[in-house]
Amino acid sequence: MRILIIEDDREAASYLVKAFREAGHVADHATDGLDGYAMAESGDYDVLVVDRMLPKLDGLSLIRSLREQKVETPVLILSALGQVDDRVKGLRAGGDDYLPKPYAFSELLARVEVLSRRRTASPSVEPTVYRIADLELDRLSHRVTRSGQEIVLQPREFRLLEYLMKNANQVVTRTMLLEHVWDYHFDPQTNVIDVHVSRLRAKIDKGFDKPLIHTIRGAGYMVRVGPAEGEE
Amino acid sequence: MTRAASAMSALGALFRTTAFKLSFAYLLVFALFAFAALGYVAWNAQRLLSDQFTSTIDAEINGLSEQYRIGGLRRLVNIVERRSRVPGASLYLVTTNAGEKIAGNVGALPPGVIDRPGQFETDYARTEDADAPPSHALVRIYLLPGGFRLLVGRDMDESARLREVIRRAFGYSLLFIGILGCGGAWFITRRVLKRIDDMTETTRVIMAGDLGGRLKVAGTGDELDRLAHNLNNMLERIDELMHGMREVSDNIAHDLKTPLTRMRNRADEALRLAGTPEELRAALEANIEESDNLIRIFNALLMIARLEAGNAREELSDFDAAEAVRDVAELYEALAEEAGVPFEVAVEDDLPVHGSRELLGQAVANLLDNALKYGAPTEAGAPARPVAVTARRVGPSVEVVVADRGPGIPEAERAHVLERFVRLETARSRPGFGLGLSLATAVARLHGGALRLEDNGPGLRAVLVLPLRQTAGTPLPPSAAGA
């Protein structure tokens, strides 16, 4: 995956470039809005990571201009402004995701990977049935089966599994789950999300020899076949 | 500085005062008005007088020429002589066509005047005292058939007297306006601007650092009193904020320095001992965890500060508190179940409020967090202590109650725990930063409500009171949160 980081703070940018390369991606870096715009306009990138406050051309204007130029590369906005109205402004300008600073790199990586996967999977045609190994989730009939056996889930458990399966083979962080399943953006101080996931796991994986829901140490969760890298 | 110079500078200071400027402006305006009014009166009086003169003269000319037509020169001369003897302002003269006087009370005229028919003003001398200085008169000269000239006129002394009266009126009014202006200036300075000066002085003292100072309120309820009252309220609020700031900075110094020092020491130790890669890794991971905690504390602090400053107001919208509370309760229900804590949820339907679903959610989450952390755990063997969440209408408000059956908070401590960084267990053995209740309080205040802590006999009842939306009863849009 090719990632373009548009960030004026050199230290923060070089940290990101290094971290993305370690995670096996190609990462480029632009130090101001104009350079960033020129590089992003080429459309060579899978995901853009854009700081909001940039010299020469500010982040939101940059995104708006790209969208006007029909450059549809997914954009993750990285900003010190993290309040709800700031996020709304960012997303309205054409951003696809928003992560307030300070952030954990694992969270950023998970979100960037989800964004790029969504792009390649052409978001307009979402399948009605998600399948992974012998687990099946039908979004229309709200039925979940494993090895043909029906599993009864609470509505919230269903949405939790739906989100995990939609992003199968991708790390999904706890905050992403809270945002997408409960629609809350705060930081729960206790391990509430873990409890919900472990309850879901009890229903999905218990009694089957191959676990599908994996905990990724220091990052979040992943649905996949076989043990994931970094699994506890 | 010489005495004269200091007097000058005192005068300069006087000219710069608002009192002086105001009085001077009023004085100028009043004087202009007085002059305009008096001038108008004088001009009208003059005109009236001369109109009257003209018409009298015309009437007499008509009368006399009529007499001449009827009785000839003899009759005219008789009448003129008779009238001339009556003392007064009327003037008469009948001459030959060569200008020789036949009858009348006018002794001398400037040469050539008698040959100019028509009406005009001229100097003249009375017959009786030829030595007297010439007077001024309005005259009309009429050519009688036969070449005789008839002059009828009015002495203008009367009009000169009127002018004198008016001149005096101008003088007096100027004097009175001057006195009034000075008096007004003195009054304004003493009564009104004195109070403003006092306020300025008080604010100077307050700015110098004495935030306890307050402006004097005279009790008259006028504009200045209202200003003083509002300024006092503002000072009260500033004082409160400053106090809060001091407290927070003290707490930050204590609560944030500790983890920072811990981080520093751990890094230092790891470097010094240079252990195995696993040990170094563990030290780094512990440091990351600690810094994540610090970030969390900072986020919470920033959020509280933002809410208290009222910056979040523009984000508010209408939403259903019932839905928001249910969502959070559902989030924590799993946690309670895991811990074996009976969890009761009783939320009334349709509780419309104006505010932030996000913030209310966080506030309730904090209360639940506390209830599960401090209220629920029990000693081994004892029955589990239940935690209950309720939300219902109470009068014009929504009350969201999180109640536990734990040890509760002694009444004396309840106000205290709402402050930032305050935690009851001094050992600080359990996780948390002591910001949860402060945040809930700030959220309640932002919504125009309050957070109350009550005795649950035993246990703690945290009551979040929010005002119901005024247009209650209108259907709410279906929530995006869904089931």
Which helices and strands appear, and what pairs or packs with what?
The complex is a heterodimer of chains A (about 230) and B (about 475).
Chain A (H helix, E strand, L loop, with lengths): L1 E5 L3 H13 L3 E5 L2 H9 L5 E5 L7 H10 L6 E5 L4 H9 L4 E4 L4 H16 L8 E4 L2 E4 L4 E4 L2 E3 L3 H12 L5 E2 H9 L9 H13 L8 E4 L3 E4 L9
Parallel strand pairs in A: 1-2, 1-3, 3-4, 4-5
Antiparallel strand pairs in A: 6-7, 7-8, 8-9, 10-12, 11-12
Helix pairs in contact in A: 2-3, 6-7
Chain B lengths: L2 H14 L1 H68 L4 E6 L5 E4 L1 E3 L9 E9 L8 E9 L5 E7 L1 H51 L15 H33 L1 H17 L3 H32 L8 E4 H19 L3 E5 L4 E4 L1 H19 L11 E8 L2 E8 L6 H7 L18 H11 L3 E6 L4 E8 L16
Parallel strand pairs in B: 8-10
Antiparallel strand pairs in B: 1-2, 1-6, 3-4, 4-5, 5-6, 7-9, 10-11, 11-13, 12-13
Helix pairs in contact in B: 2-3, 5-6, 6-10, 7-8, 8-10
Organism (chain A): Microvirga thermotolerans
Keywords (chain A): DNA-binding, Phosphoprotein, Transcription, Transcription regulation, Two-component regulatory system
Pfam families (chain A): Response_reg, Trans_reg_C
